[in-house]
Amino acid sequence: MRKTKMRWAAGLLALCQLIGCSPAAGPAPEKTPGTLLVYASFYPMYDFATKIGGDRARVVNMVPAGMEPHDWEPAAADIAGLEAADVFVYNGAGFEHWVDSVLGSLENRSLVAVEASRGAVPQGETPGRAGEAEARDPHVWLSPRAAKAEMQNIADAFVQADPENKAVYEENRARWAEVLDALDREFREALDPLPRRDVVVSHRAFGYLCADYGLNQVAVEGLSPDAEPDPARVAEVIELAGARDVRVIFFEETVSPKVAEIIAEAVGAETGVLSPLESLSDERQAAGADYISVMRENLEALRAALA
Predict the structure, then answer these.
(1) How far apart are the first and last CA of the chain?
(2) For the chain, what is the domain count?
(3) Better-predicted residue by pLDDT, 224 or 169
C-alpha cells in the first residue's frame, strides 16, 4: 500500500510539472479602478511593493506564504494574473530563474516589469567565500542599504505605470527610506562593538548583510538552501567554528536544522534561526510581522551570537 501511494504521488507530481501547476494557485484578481494591480515574485518584493504602493496598489504575492521560493515556478493562474497586471516586481540577480521565459511569453505590452536589485549593489560587490567560484549571490534585500535602493526602483516603476500618483509613491518611498536608514544604524551600532565576527549559516544567503557590518559569513552550503551538504565542507566548518569559538550555528525556518545541529554538537555550540526573509507565514503576517520586524529579530540573534 505504501509503495502504491508513493507511485501515485510521484505520478501526480510529474503531471503537475508537465502542465505547469503550482500549489495554492488561485484565480487572477480583478482590477480595481484607480488602483495599480501589482504582482510581486516573492515575499520581500511583496513587502516592499506594499509599502511603496500604500492604498494605491493591490499587491499579489506570487509565491504562497511559507513556501520556499528558490525552486518555485508560476502556474497558469499566475501567468493570467501577469497578463492583467500593471506592474511586476521581481528581485532579479538570478533569484527567479523563470522570469525571462515568462516575460517573453506575455502579451501584456503595458506591463511595467522592474528588476528591483538592478543597481542596488555596486558592480562587482558580490560577497562569498574566498576562491569560491559560484553564481552571484541574489539575496540583495538582506542589506538594509540595498533594500532602500530596491524600494527606489519599485517606486520609479510605480510612477511609470501611474504618473498621476507620483507624489504618493515618492512620499511613501521617502518615509520608508528613513526607516531603513534607522535600521542600518541599529545594525551598525549594535554589531560594531562585538568581539566575534564569524557568522556560521547553513545557506549562503547573508553575504550582503555581513559585508555591510564587517562580519564574516561562513556558509556550510551554497545558494540553494536544500542542497546536499559536502562532508568535506562540513568538516571544514566544524574546524573553523571550533578554532574561532563560534557560539551559535544558524539555520532557517523553512529548512531542516540537521546539519546545523551536527556542527553545533561537534563544537559545543547552540543552534539559532537567522531568517533570509524569502518567505513569511500567513500567521506571522497577520500578527504584524514584516521585513523590518524580522530584520530586527535577525539583529537580536546576531547580537546574542557574537557577544
Answers:
(1) 53
(2) 2
(3) 169
